[in-house]
Structure formats: C-alpha cells, structure tokens
Amino acid sequence: MKKYTLNLSMEELEKRTHKDYLITKKFLKADAPEYLALAEGDKEALKYLVRAANILEKINMQLDNEDNLPFKEFLEEEIKNGNKQAELTKILFDAQKGINAIDSMSQPIYLAKEVPGRAGKGVYPSDLTKEEFHKILTKMLLDGKSDDVRKILTQRSVVERRGEELVGIDYIDKFKDDFSRMADELEKASEVSTNTDFNEYLKLQAKALRVADPLLDAYADKKWATLQDTPLEFTITRENYADEMTGTVIETPELKALLDENKINPIPKDFLGGRVGIVNKQGTEALMAIKKYLPTLAKNMPYNNEYEQNIKPDEDTKQTMVDVDMVQASGDVGEYRGGITLAENLPNDDKLSLTIGGGRRNVYHRQIRFISDMKKLQERLDETLDKEQHKYYLDEADHWFTIGHENAHSLGPRKGNEKLGKYRNIIEENKADMGSLAFVDLLTKLGMYTEEQRKQIIVTTIADNFLKSKPTLSQAHRVRTVMQNKYFADRGGYEIIDGKIHVNIDKVVPIAKKMLAEIVRIQIDGDFKKAEKYVMDNFVWTDNMELIAQKLQKINKTLNGRLETELADKLS
Ligand SMILES: [Zn+2]
C-alpha cells in the first residue's frame, strides 16, 4: 500500500472540520415525504440509480487525481490503527471528494504532502509539463499523426505516455468494468421505474456506457434533454471546468497553426458526476414561467444576426427545466470545493447531441440553495448593504437570477468558444450572468417579473457580486464575479457609502447590456488575445471589494462544506 504524509496539522484539521467552518447541506432524509410519495417501482429504481451514481464517483476520483483511491485506502487503514489525524483528514477528503481542492477563501487544500495540485488533474500523466505536452503534440502532427492527436484532445479521453508519444484512451475503454457495472444498474432501474420516457433514456445511457462511441452518448443526451414530466431525476453530468491543461495548446503559435490546419478543436476533459433526485412539481412549475419568453430573449441577444442559436426565435424551444429534491450528488457535481453549483444547464456546447437536433435541460438543486441560517444573512446585510435597500434583498431573487443565468447559457453563439482557451469558461459564465441581468427590464415589461421583483433581482445580484476573498484565475465562476463587480463599479452601478453597498438600481440593467454585448462580441470573434485583455482589464480586486470581503469573513467563517445524504446511504 502506498504511504502518504498528512499535510494538515491537528489544529488546522480541528478548525476545518468544526461546524462553523464546514457547513452541511442536507439532502433528502430516509423518511422524506417526497420519497414516501413515490410509486413502489420508482422507489426501487431510485436504489439502482444511487448505486450507479456511487460507481461513477469512483471513476471520477481517478479522473480527478491518480492518488485519490490509494490515499483513501491509506486513510482507512490509518483510521483502523487509531490515527486521529487521519480520521479528521478523511472528513475533508469525503467533503471535497478528493485529495486536492480549493476552499471558499480560494486557498488550496492539499491533504497529502506528496501530492501537489496540477493542471492536468488525473487525466494527464503526472510528470507531463505544459511545454513537453506542446512539444510532443507538435511532433506528432508534423509526423502526420493527426488522428492520434485528435483522440488526445477530445473531452472524453485519459492521456497516457506511450514511448516518446502520448495516447488518448476513451473513458469508456479506460474504466470498462466500472462503466458496465453502472450500465447494469441503469438497466435494472429502467425495468422498474414507472415512466416510459425516463426508462428509454436509461436504456440509451446504459448502452453508451458499454461501448466507446460519442454518438451513443449523443442519443442518450438527446433523449435526456426532453425529460420534463418524470418522477425521478438521473443525470451523468459532464463539465470541463477543472482541466487546466488541454486548453493551453492554443498558446503555442506553431502548434495552434498545425491544429487549425488539421481541423482539430481541442476540448478540455470532462469530469463526471452522478445526480439522483426526485422532481419537485411545484418548484418545476415556477421555473417554467420563463420558457415562453426564451424565443423573445434569443431575438434580443446582441449581434444575433451573426450566429446561429440553440434557441431559435421561430421554433419550438428545446429547453426543459426541472427543480429537484436531491438524493445523491456524486463525483464532480457533488465535490464541495469552495461551493457546490445551484443548477446546471446541460449538455454543454461541445457535446455532439446539440448537432443532431438535441436540446438542453436545466436541473436546479433545491437543497443546495436553501439558506440554513437566516440570522447570519441578516447580520451580513446589516454590515454590508445600505439599510434603505434591505427590503430589496431576497434569497428567492437569487434563485430567479440563477434561472436567468442557466437559460442564458442556451442563448448566444454556439461555436468558437474553444478558441478562447483558458478564458472560455470565464467568458461563458460572464455571458450567462449578464444575460440574466440584461433581460430583467424586458421580462418585467413582458409581465414575468413585477416592478418589486425587478428591484429585488437587481439589488440581490449586485450585493452577491461581493466575494469573501480574491479568487485565483482558475476559478471561472468567481473570476467573472469580480470582473462584473469592477465593471459595475466603474460605471456607477453601485457606490460604497459609509462602508456599505448602495445600488443605483436604474443604472444596473443598461450596464449589464453593455457588458453582455462586449462578451458576445468576444465569443463571435473567437480571439484569444482579446479575451485575455478583457479578463485582465476587468479582473481587478479593488479596495472596496477588499473592504466588504473583510466584513464577510468576520460574519461567515465557512471554509468548505459537505453533503449529508441519509436516504442515498440507506438505499445503497
Ligand atoms: Zn453557468
């Protein structure tokens, strides 16, 4: 067995595992009414789906870091021998679902001294540097091995050394046994669940787990994206925010020219998650309010005559949306690394299903958005927001903003993002945020929001743009928040008066429209240098941001969090 040296001291571990610092998000309990109300067949299906998600967690741990599984084994052995430090380390390991993570103060949390963080995560050889990576690919392309390079630069391969070269192995081939065990569970679920469409999706998904063929995934994704009225929710989430290696290939001019010549689009590697839940009917109805406006929003996107959109103004909107009571979030979607996502709109633009007529589906995570401590929220408002504007701060408004954000991912240019390299995700997230905010006035005029709700969305969003600490450049979701904050500050969207945020409500939407137009321009142009300049110009941590950050740190001590999944644990 591989040995490791634990990196965090007892003092540090005791602090980080204390409930003030490590919050708990509670998923459905074993006796939850939502579960008890399910038909018998769906209850049984849920059990198989949880098992499938748990298998996926094991696979994703290996994609995330090759030391994850050996380290876990080491910790378990040490705990058996009474090692208290290992016991506390394991709590953090389970919370962040891996050996390395980042906390909500943007500090790296590495659990073993021997295992530093690295750009290529577990999907590239651990000793491969960016420079060597580019050199090998350049040589392979000059040698005419473009098909091999294509396999290395897809979103679904693990890259390994083969002599002097590299080879890309499809995920399905790399983890054959585990993926077929997962397929078995999905097929069992499809035999007992009560919903025909859902069962059809499960069968298609199972097929795609047995044979390495992106087209099989596309068929499964296409079916999945149509699911609207099903009792259960199951998703294999595939997102590529964590890979900091693949996107770099466009930074070496000779290699970039060769890739263009061979028509190879480098796409960062997917990290995989398993989401299991029960669809909440009431919450879902509330979400659907936005659907009929999507074609109008598509028509109002900046420069919309220059690109094709997923949502077409004159067609049926291929966009489903569900609000879900969470049972399990395994792998990538359940890793608590500074936070957990409130919702996802999948498949992302790099997926094949969108090219064969497939749509997209939004899934909102109810238990993640619930606020556990209203007292702390009030304390935060007292310290940071103009008292006159407290009446416009509403946690529900954050949910409405998220709905706008997820749907904005479906608007705008579909292609060209990969040309933006490491800035693609920052730019895309920025687009989604500004898309959400830019349309608030229009949606108010159309009757979706009341005037009161309009103010609540604007004030809540601007207040929430203030972070607890300056993020690192690799945190796409947070970098764009700082960029927006700077952009609004420069244009009078808010002011800091006596140490508190005062939002200039009527200025916000016009500023958001301006930023949205600039961002969409960058996506259309697909110019790396322009994207870099835009991010650098706006990713500026100001004195005011630091002032508010200091206050937030005092009120909210949270450094990370974990999931409590009582129902899932019982079912598996
Ligand atoms: Zn997003």
Features:
572 residues, alpha+beta, Fructose-1,6-Bisphosphatase, Chain A, domain 1, five-stranded mixed β-sheet, two-stranded parallel ribbon, 13 strands, globular, binds zinc ion
Give structural notes:
This protein has two domains: 25-54 and 120-370 and 558-572, Fructose-1,6-Bisphosphatase, Chain A, domain 1, CATH 3.30.540.30; 373-541, no CATH class. It is built from 25 helices and 13 strands. A five-stranded mixed β-sheet has the order 6-7-8-10-9. A two-stranded parallel sheet has the order 1-13. Strands 2-3 form a two-stranded antiparallel ribbon. The radius of gyration is 23 Å and the shape is globular. The protein has helices at 10-16, 33-36, 40-64, 68-80, 84-96, 130-142, 146-152, 171-174, 176-192, 196-210, 214-224, 253-261, 281-287, 294-299, 366-369, 374-384, 395-408, 424-438, 440-445, 451-464, 476-490, 505-525, 528-538, 543-555, 566-571; strands at residues 22-26, 100-102, 108-110, 157-162, 165-170, 232-239, 271-279, 319-331, 343-346, 360-365, 494-497, 500-503, 560-564. The longest helix is centred in the first third of the chain and has 25 residues, at 40-64. The mean pLDDT is 95. By secondary structure, the protein is an alpha+beta fold. Residues 405, 409, 429, 432 line the site of zinc ion.
